[in-house]
Design goal:
Layout (H helix, E strand, L loop, with lengths): L3 H9 L2 H18 L2 H13 L5 H9 L7 H50 L3 H7 L1 H43 L1 H29 L1
Helix pairs in contact: 2-5, 2-7, 3-5, 5-7, 7-8
Length: 203
């Protein structure tokens, strides 16, 4: 019988691939989280003329004759493009790794089901019905494939992104970060209830 325990046991056989996929997801989040910080960084350090770490590093790597807003903003733009490109490529790699893992697990489950099906008497097969058997082999396994390949992949990225954004917020201004993190669940709860209320009124 196919249970969550048996699915988990199959996943455990691919612990290395699962760890690799999670590590790639972590790298993708680390590349994506700093991108929104570069614009306010440029406003503070270049436009408002309060040079700090970023401008100092760029100035240390380039000749003094090149120093100016064009150089610093261009460097920030180049860094933004590189980080965004790295994030996209890592997300594709991570999604592919999770997808291959899901296909491998579903394949092993399908082989086990076929082996079990070959041992079932024909009379029992006729009692169950071809439609139900087909449903298990197609619909149910496709649902497991989608859950392992897409849902878990998206969940890992979302959780890591939330942790990364929260860490950046606390680093920038812990009081504001605390306010945002505490207020967000209330906003989600209010929006959900309001959406249900509007849906009921439309009926």
């Amino acid at each position: 019988m196919l249970t969550w325990q048996s699915i988990y046991a199959e996943i455990r056989t691919y612990r290395t691939h699962l760890a690799q996929a999670n590590f790639i997801a972590l790298l993708a989040v680390m590349a994506a989280v700093p991108v929104p910080l570069l614009l306010p960084l440029m406003v503070d350090e270049v436009l408002l003329q309060h040079p700090a770490g970023f401008v100092a590093r760029i100035a240390g790597w380039t000749p003094a004759a090149w120093h100016g807003p064009v150089l610093f903003i261009g460097a920030a733009l180049l860094l933004t493009v590189l980080l965004r490109l790295a994030s996209i490529l890592l997300n594709v790699w991570q999604g592919r790794t999770f997808s291959l893992l899901a296909k491998a697990v579903v394949y092993r489950i399908r082989v086990q089901m076929l082996n079990r099906l070959s041992k079932i008497a024909l009379s029992e097969f006729e009692t169950v019905g071809a439609g139900r058997v087909t449903s298990h082999f197609v619909t149910d396994l496709n649902a497991i494939d989608s859950f392992l390949g897409a849902s878990i992949s998206g969940l890992v990225v979302s959780v890591l992104t939330l942790i990364g954004v929260a860490a950046v917020l606390f680093w920038m201004h812990w009081q504001l970060a605390l306010f945002i993190l505490l207020l967000n669940p209330l906003v989600i709860l209010f929006s959900t209830r309001l959406g249900k209320r509007v849906k009921d009124l439309k009926k």
